[in-house]
Amino acid sequence: MAHILTFCAANGAEIPRHPLELLAAARALSAQWGGGQVHTLCLGPSAGSYGEELIHRGADEVLTVECPSVEGEVALAAVESAVQHLSPPVVLLPHDDLGGAYVGPSLAYRLGAGIATDCVGFDVRGEEVRWLRPVYGGKAMAYLRVRGPVQLATMRSRAFDPLPADPTRRGEVREFPMDWERVRPQIRIVERLEEKREEELPLDRAEIIVSGGRGMGSTEGFAVLRELAQVLGAAVGGSRPAADLGWVPHSHLVGQTGKIVAPNLYIAVGISGAAQHITGAGSSRTIVAINKDPDAPIFKLAHIGVVEEWEKVIPALIEACKELRSSSPG
Amino acid sequence: MHIIVCIKQIIDPEVPFHLFRIDPVAKRQVQGTHPLVISTYDEVAVEVALQLKEKVGGRVTVLTLGRKEAIQALHQALAMGADDAVLLSDLSFEETDSFGKARVLAAAIRKIGAFDMVLCGRQAGDVEFGLVGPFLAGELGIPCVPLAANFEPVDSTLRIRRPVETGYEILEAPLPILATITNDTSNVPRYASVRGLRAAMRIPVPTWSAADLGISPSDLAEPVRIEIDELFIPQREMRCEIIGGESGAEKARNLVARLKALGLIG
Ligand SMILES: Cc1cc2nc3c(=O)[nH]c(=O)nc-3n(C[C@H](O)[C@H](O)[C@H](O)COP(=O)(O)OP(=O)(O)OC[C@H]3O[C@@H](n4cnc5c(N)ncnc54)[C@H](O)[C@@H]3O)c2cc1C
Ligand SMILES: Nc1ncnc2c1ncn2[C@@H]1O[C@H](COP(=O)(O)O)[C@@H](O)[C@H]1O
Question: Which residue range(s) make up the domain with A23?
């Protein structure tokens, strides 16, 4: 029987969505393999309290490690110990700042193991797994084969939907003993700087996202977009130039190297439609593009398009949405 | 301070979807008439290195592993302000996986000698594995700091600024370190001037082969631990519905009506 190890880091009160997605992916993989246990290594200040929910969401066993906060070197040491303990043929990690940028690649190096990063799926042929991931900014897809003592994969967020909680599922939750003496972090966090926030609504909770690109022209242009977002009850996102120019915080950057979002409605304004951007919004139900250039690539990727300068559309759009809101009941 | 920056030359990643072509047998993009550029985050890494050099003094060396034409990427980095460049070129380097590439880069860095910091991009702008940086840190036996945006010397240490969800984290680590670089408002790459480029062309750039680095090509060939098995372009049957109207305002009203009809707003 093949075991799969997944990873869950939780600093807050709730389990974030991504580790639950990993459980769904692990269950899907285990089903295609014809069975196998799913183990989850859970790290955080109150790791033990998540155990039951992780079982309900697909884990067979949860190994908990309590630590004050989940940082790279600590997470790496814990995952490495768990891998040594379980010898799983496959380890699934989140493709995020922790798993994708640090723990996954560093662990792969230490174990001499092949790794597939930023995966959105897999196919299984007999014993062998092929990992599906976007390449060239999402313009192409690749199936990767990885070899070594264990196969590591980091999974893109939103590639799998969490399984509904099944309270009848049973499994074991136990503390995983860590030899902290052996963990000697060399990188120290000396300060945390909170950024002033104009964006109230986080991207991953929003039904509607209004996103702006270089075509917004200025901070003032972006303010108009924020007004539209406000009347729509939408979150505000941006393309990479918009983030680099300081019009939106980097935490609201949408795309391959930013947030992967999947709202009902994604309205892209003054965004050309680079694959690297759209890949982050590609699972939105409906994508609306507003761009003055009829040949902008975004019109090949959006469902609905408006060819016009935003200056001529957005103010009227704000008015029309306000009217709609005041005329609709509730 | 001696800062080494690893840069990769790639086909312009901004090539739009409809002009993008692949060779499914060779399992890579076809260049066609598209230009070759420094990979996006590697250009950012050069900028970060130059900013640090401006603060503390020292030298910036750029390294690339690639074919002969990758020298253009090095010239561009030199024109931006880097001091030295080395091209690592050998047939055996091309087919090796991320483990092999890290080994080659590490051998070159050892041959160069003393250094304080190695910078890589967070991920290459083409296949985007994001592996060579952390692997190289492993090869060199130094800590890897992921997703750094810039560095600030404070007293005798170096503070590392890393953008996170809530703002920034300020880190400290003993040198030498390897950092993978991400983009931020503070590190938008400067342009290389024409004059800079002309001056850069006069800087001699050595080319090192596997033999120069004491690497045997057969060592790089096996084992292959990461391999593209199949490359394809996903089918996208997308028809964009263009909203008409005589004026911007009318288009806006028509759009709202359409979105309401679809049950997406209101
Ligand atoms: C490895 C890699 C990762 C990347 N990751 C990301 C990522 O995560 N997210 C991301 O966004 N990008 C990412 N990029 C960058 C990406 O390739 C594009 O460069 C970027 O998305 C372009 O942003 P943009 O559309 O805002 O700007 P541009 O491409 O400059 O487009 C501006 C658009 O605005 C339109 N416009 C101008 N004025 C107006 C007006 N008055 N009214 C209406 N429209 C107007 C123009 O017609 C144009 O289409 C990445 C690139 C690489 C190589
Ligand atoms: N051929 C190369 N030459 C020099 N540096 C490279 C090369 N390939 C990758 N790198 C470095 O490693 C980073 C990550 O690359 P990758 O693992 O391919 O996504 C890049 O941003 C570069 O800094």
Answer: 4-182
What is the C-alpha to C-alpha distance for residues B210 and B217, in angstroms, rounded to an integer?
7
Cis peptide before A88 (omega within 30 of 0): no
Same domain, B137 and B259: no
Rounded to whole angstroms, the Cα distance separating A64 from A78 reads: 10
Ligand 2 contact, B128 CB (< 6 A): yes
Q: How far is the CA of B14 from the centre of ligand 1 (A)?
A: 9
Sequence-distant (≥ 6) Cβ neighbours of residue A146 within 8 angstroms: A113, A114, A115, A116, A131, A152, A153, B225, B226, B227
pLDDT at B6 over 90: yes
Do B126 and B245 belong together in one domain?
Answer: no
Q: Residue A300: phi, psi to the nearest 5?
A: -95, -10
Same domain for B246 and B119, yes or no, is no
Q: Which of residues 181-220 of A touch B (CB under 8 A)?
A: 186-195, 208
On whether both B57 and B94 belong to a single domain, the answer is yes
What are the beta bridge partners of residue B180?
A: B120
* pLDDT single digits (tens) B113-124: 999 999 999 999
For residues A275 and A281, what is the distance between their CA atoms, to the nearest angstrom? Answer: 10
Instruction: Provide the whole-model pTM.
Output: 0.95
B226 belongs to a structural domain: no
* CATH code for the domain of A279: 3.40.50.1220
As a whole number of angstroms, the distance between CA A139 and CA B169 comes to 33
**CB of A25 within 8 Å of any CB in chain B?**
no
Residues of B in contact with A286 (CB under 8 A): 259, 262, 264
More reliable by pLDDT, B266 or B187: B187
State the ipTM, two decimals.
Answer: 0.95
pLDDT exceeds 70 at position A301: yes
Task: Output the CA–CA distances (angstroms, integers) from residue B219 to A17, A30, A79, A216, B96, in the order listed.
Answer: 42, 35, 29, 52, 10
pLDDT in tens, A21-30: 999 999 999 9
Q: Give buried/exposed letters for B159-172 (b at 16+ CB in 10 A, else e).
A: bbbbbeeeebbbbb
Residue A259 DSSP one-character state: B
Is the preceding peptide bond at B217 cis, omega within 30 degrees of 0?
no
How many structural domains comprise chain B? Answer: 2
CA distances from A77 to A80, A102, A233, B3, B144 (A): 5, 12, 42, 28, 14
Contacts of A172 (CB under 8 A, 6+ apart): A60, A61, A62
Query: CB of A256 within 8 Å of any CB in chain B?
Result: yes
